[in-house]
Amino acid sequence: GREQFHGLGSMYCRGAAAVILTYDVNSLQSLTELEDRFLALTDTASADCIFAIVGNKVDLTDDCALSPETEEENRPEKPLASGGSTKVRKQVRAEDAIALYKKILKYKMLDEKDVPAAEKMCFETSAKTGYKVDYLFETVFEMVVPIIVRQKAEGPQQTVDITDYKPAKRTKSGCCA
Questions:
Q1: For the chain, what is the domain count?
Q2: Percent of the chain as helix, strand, coil, to the nearest 5
Q3: What pLDDT sits at residue 66?
Q4: What are phi and psi of 137, to 5 degrees?
Q5: Which PANTHER family does this chain map to (predicted)?
Q6: What is the CATH number of the domain that holds 107?
Q7: In which domain, by residue range, is 114 found?
Q8: Using one digit for the tens of pLDDT, what is the confidence trace for 64-93?
Q9: In terms of pLDDT, which residue wins out, 151 or 128?
Q10: What rounded mean pLDDT belongs to the chain?
Q11: Can you tell me the distance from the alpha carbon of 61 to that of 82, in angstroms, rounded to the nearest whole number?
């Protein structure tokens, strides 16, 4: 079913100030497909777009790979056990997500020193339990708001004022003139 919506992606990325690319931490194939299918969709995003790579479904894993600094920030939000189901070993490591982030930068011809660090833009979350979801959106939001404010101050207005409409003058000539 995913194939039928694949063509719509570039429409949703057009002019985007942020793109959040999500994969399943329990499926290396999902990270590969993310790169293969959606990397080109970022072409329509704004030039200074922020990219976040998000591994989802950490609630299903037997470990929750947290870096020491993010563990301190998110200590109250421990992932909840999912109803007695067996935990699985993660197939996608944080290093794999960081490598994808760096590929995006290379693809977009962005210099690593001009964009947020890969370690800051790769997240592991659980949509089911809410684990680190707020942290993800707060981080992206803090980076995107200044970009949007700057774009509005620098660029032309993105909307058309229909009250300025002036109808074209009509001529009395025939069908082809």
A1: 1
A2: 45, 10, 40
A3: 43
A4: -70, -35
A5: DRAB5-RELATED (PTHR24073)
A6: 3.40.50.300
A7: 3-67+89-154
A8: 544 434 444 444 444 444 455 577 888 888
A9: 128
A10: 78
A11: 10
